[in-house]
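Q: Given only this backbone (139 positions), what sequence would you predict?
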């Protein structure tokens, strides 16, 4: 089973989802802005991906600056509180497969945890080739 915590407005998230589908996998898609993970799930995603809470925090969005989150004075618990209150602060996309959990930034990180090979050539939305016609990773 493959699950992606997805934001359809994000190019990296769209590219990641497209690579999952290019492997012939139809994932469970959770649009985390409208259906955010609960705290326990978020903590598990972050831990399973081998990240710190701060590394899972998105810093290129409005509440980040307003809340002063760049300052190093917040505990992990406080950062998780903010992520729960403002799901836009959760970096994306997180992908969970039977081979592991990753924050797929850049999007081709997803290739490390897919159980199936790419079925066709794949280029990101910006034109960067990621997979050749034989399904081999280029980057």
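A: Predicted residues:
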């Amino acid at each position: 089973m493959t699950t992606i915590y997805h934001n359809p407005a994000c190019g990296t998230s769209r590219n990641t989802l497209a690579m999952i589908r290019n492997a012939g996998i139809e994932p469970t898609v959770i649009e985390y802005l409208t259906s955010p993970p609960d705290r326990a799930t978020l903590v598990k995603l972050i831990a399973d991906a081998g990240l710190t809470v701060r590394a899972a925090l998105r810093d290129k969005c409005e509440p980040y600056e307003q809340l002063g989150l760049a300052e190093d004075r917040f505990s992990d618990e406080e950062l998780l509180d903010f992520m729960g209150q403002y799901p836009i602060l959760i970096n994306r996309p997180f992908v969970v497969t039977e081979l592991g959990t990753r924050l797929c930034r850049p999007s081709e990180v997803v290739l490390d945890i897919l159980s199936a090979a790419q079925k066709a050539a794949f280029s990101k939305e910006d034109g960067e080739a990621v997979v050749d016609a034989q399904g081999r990773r280029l980057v």
